Amino acid sequence: MEKADTIALLERGRTLSTPALRAAVDRLAAPMDTVAAYHFGWIDAQGNVADGDGGKAVRPALALLSAEAAGAAAEVGIPGAVAVELVHNFSLLHDDLMDGDEQRRHRDTVWKVHGPALAILVGDALFALANEVLLELGTVEAGRATRRLTTASRKLIDGQAQDISYEHRERVSVEECLEMEGNKTGALLACAVSIGAVLGGADDRTADKLEEYGYHLGLAFQAVDDLLGIWGDPEATGKQTWSDLRQRKKSLPVVAALAAGGEASEQLAELLAADAKSSDFENFSEEEFAARAALIEAAGGRQWTADEARRQHAVAIRALDDVDMPQRVRDQLVALADFVVVRKR
């Protein structure tokens, strides 16, 4: 598939799921409905209608393709697409507050505009809505889909807890980092690409294989995110320069560099250990963060992470070989996986 076709696939996911997503958000009591609308980019901070960046919409696209993989119409996957998108945005609202991120998608984050209390409440409300959207379908398949969503949500929260705890440790193993990222990113993508199939009547074996694809796609997605978190262009990512280094995140490039051994690795370890004790860390200059990024690259952390993204991408594609689905749907799932690994934001 051409890149334009992949963009069209993402746009289809956004177009089909957004009306149902808006209808779900409209159920929230004021002012939570307005705050959520701001987060999704539908209005600006003053309440005026806006056409903000609502994100890449990878998860809704996967949920609709998932339904088609089971032989159902794409529309069957819409409640699943909405539910997964609500859980994803619940996590973003809370993560931004916990990480102290002031920018998302080129705009001030919810907690920065509306305060921490509303960021927490709206996140909680989106999480509750996600389960409501599925369960109100009242079918056996909806119950099965909800079980998968709640399991994925719990793993996502596990991953965020691991991520926070790792920031305060000098050393984290590559295996621990992959486990954390598998929970934080892989679990929900795995759910997105199975939930539509479950709603379409697929058996557990088919759903499990689709989850396997989604899980490894999530690891590839996060590896690319980790690269962008250090070397991404702020104009493209909507975040500060050296974003993950500013938060002392033990992301894959950092962890791989520290595990590599050698002079650059040892220098990096010394610097990061000193950073953890520094009272002036928040006032570091651009040059100081650039120096840490250069050491990560010299130790091989950047290249290792890029290679890992490609490896996880290959494992994801192989999982599709065990799913009996229309060739067109398989081609589209492969194209989306390719898109995830080559993106710049």
Automatic annotation (TrEMBL):
Under Gene Ontology molecular function, one entry of this record is:
geranylgeranyl diphosphate synthase activity
Q: Coiled-coil annotation: which residues?
A: none
Source domain of life is: Bacteria
- Listed Gene3D superfamilies: Farnesyl Diphosphate Synthase
Query: Carries keyword Metal-binding?
Result: yes
Please give the family membership noted in the entry: Belongs to the FPP/GGPP synthase family.
Tell me what this protein is called.
Answer: Geranylgeranyl diphosphate synthase type I
Phylogenetic lineage:
Bacteria, Bacillati, Actinomycetota, Actinomycetes, Kitasatosporales
